[in-house]
Design brief:
This protein has helices at 6-14, 17-25, 35-38, 72-76, 84-87, 126-129, 148-157, 167-175, 235-256, 259-282, 289-295, 305-317, 336-360, 446-456; strands spanning 52-58, 111-114, 119-122, 135-142, 185-189, 215-217, 322-327, 367-372, 376-381, 392-395, 399-404, 412-414, 444-445, 465-468, 471-474. With 488 residues, the chain is α/β, with parallel strands linked by helices.
Length: 488
């Protein structure tokens, strides 16, 4: 016979009259949220501008000097060594740190100003160039990580050390879910050969309840593995099985009071509902031809970046809170001119189409779209520099990302880099060495970037916390400032 302990009594009491009263006051879209998040829900003292985020993560580190950050001086000085006064002792990776010289490499691509904003974009991105007045370019991002694993982990979780909750998990923990038949956080990865692995901890929950885990949709027959009933199992049989399993888990929970048991029950139920909702959302046959043409010929090929962008819009329409797309392959240490051209051919049209599609459906104003990688690339060539070929090493000191919608100011460029694309310039035009300990005007640290994203969702990043091992953790650690100049 189960004996009632003090812990058990208090836990039951907390879900009694008080819990019912709280539930009656919560917005409907929060009622399905996990119990561990309820106390943190009402975080905002300002109205959110964005209801959801679509994050286009270009894994590998896109070269800002070949895409958005026009540096004609690099072409003038092509082949000459990077001045020591510019590098100023900044660390290099082991891949180029032993080079006798660091030869400056001018971009081989033509840059032109576009739109009313006059934003510079290279000829690699003609479709993105057509929507620059909807975009906010941030040219002064910087990070502390110089290698891929810690850099991607930093942008995904706010820490270079694995084990922290991901950005999407923090968002669903803080805001709950809108559509109870789909996960609040979905991950889509371009299906392509790559030497750079992407691992599940980038969209993991760390120490948060595991129901906030990102759910990866695959490009195969089943978007989510093991959702389809096996042969001989009917829908009613699956329902009966889940009811029995839930009853057993409830008994287990009454004895152990482990919240992960409740999570297990909730995830089984979500999987049951997803048997209907996932096939519907991944079936693009209902999209008209004009929409498919907007995203390009790859839109009809599951697993491509274009197909994932179209699917992201469909998920956003159905209330998915955070959608993260990963496109790997931007790690161009050599053969950059050819490799980056291929990357842009795979992504440019679909990125522009997503922004355009959201805008014409009236969704861009409350959907925050983010494009960027984990760091930039060096202004000098890694390895041999030739007339028509060069490579670029990792560069954390400055790089470019763009944002659109969700209350972000459109048609602006924020921040600037020096003539070499190597250092961030302060407001006075002098190169600066930003420090995360103190906010530096003009520079945008990873924590600042995260704080600004959360702000647009109506979340004060200093209040979105979770008590773990005696300390209250947050996405932005003990740092981060909202970059108010980016806000409309």
């Amino acid at each position: 016979m189960f004996s009632v302990t003090r812990r058990h009594f208090l836990s039951k009491l907390s879900t009694g009259i008080g819990g019912a009263a709280l539930a009656s006051m919560l917005p409907e879209n929060l009622l399905g949220a996990s119990s561990d998040a309820i106390g943190e829900k009402l975080l905002a003292n300002f109205a959110p501008k964005a209801k959801r985020v679509i994050y286009l993560f270009m894994s590998g580190g896109p070269s800002h000097m070949d895409l958005f950050d026009y540096k004609p001086k690099l072409n003038e000085l092509n082949g000459q060594p990077l001045p020591n006064s510019v590098r100023n002792g900044q660390r290099l990776t082991g891949m180029s740190g032993n080079q006798a010289i660091l030869p400056l490499a001018g971009s081989q691509f033509k840059f032109t100003q576009h739109g009313k904003s006059g934003a510079w974009v290279s000829d690699l991105l003609p479709h993105t160039a057509g929507i620059v007045d909807d975009l906010c370019f941030v040219k002064s991002l910087w990070t502390e990580a110089i290698n891929h694993d810690p850099a991607m982990t930093f942008f995904s979780t706010g820490s270079q050390i694995a084990g922290r909750p991901s950005l999407g998990s923090w968002v669903t923990y803080g805001l709950g879910s809108v559509n109870q038949n789909l996960p609040g956080f979905v991950v889509l990865i371009t299906k392509k050969p790559t030497d750079q692995p992407l691992y599940a901890r980038l969209w993991g929950t760390g120490f948060l309840n595991s129901r906030h885990q990102g759910v990866r949709f695959s490009s195969g027959k089943d978007a989510v593995f093991y959702l389809t009933d096996p042969d001989g199992i009917c829908r009613s049989g699956r329902r009966a099985l889940l009811d029995k399993l839930s009853a057993l888990n409830q008994i287990d929970f009454q004895n152990e009071l482990d919240p992960e048991i409740e999570t297990r029950i909730a995830q089984y139920e979500m999987a049951y509902r997803m048997q209907t909702s996932v096939p519907e959302v991944t079936d693009i046959s209902s999209e008209n031809q004009a929409t498919k043409d907007l995203y390009g010929p790859d839109a009809a090929k599951p697993g491509t970046f274009a197909s994932n962008c179209l699917l992201a819009r469909r998920l956003a329409e159905r209330g998915v809170r955070f959608i993260q797309l990963y496109h790997p392959g931007w790690d161009q240490h050599g053969n950059l001119p050819k490799a980056i051209r291929n990357q842009c051919l795979e992504t440019d049209q679909a990125c522009a189409a997503l922004v355009t599609d959201l805008k014409r459906r009236g969704m861009l104003e409350d959907t925050l779209v983010v494009w960027g990688g984990e760091f930039g690339r060096t202004s000098y060539s890694q390895g041999k520099l030739t007339k028509d070929n060069y490579g670029r090493d990792h560069h954390p000191r400055c790089f470019t990302a763009w944002m659109a919608g969700g209350g972000i100011k459109p048609g602006i460029t924020y921040g600037a880099t020096d003539d070499y694309g190597y250092n961030i310039l302060g407001p006075d035009g002098v190169a600066i060495n930003p420090s995360k300990e103190k906010f530096t005007p003009g520079a945008v640290h990873v924590h600042d970037f995260h704080a600004t994203i959360l702000n647009q969702l109506g979340i004060d990043h200093t209040r979105l916390t979770y008590l773990f091992q005696g300390r209250r953790f947050r996405l932005t650690d003990v740092h981060g400032h909202v970059v108010k100049d980016l806000l409309a």
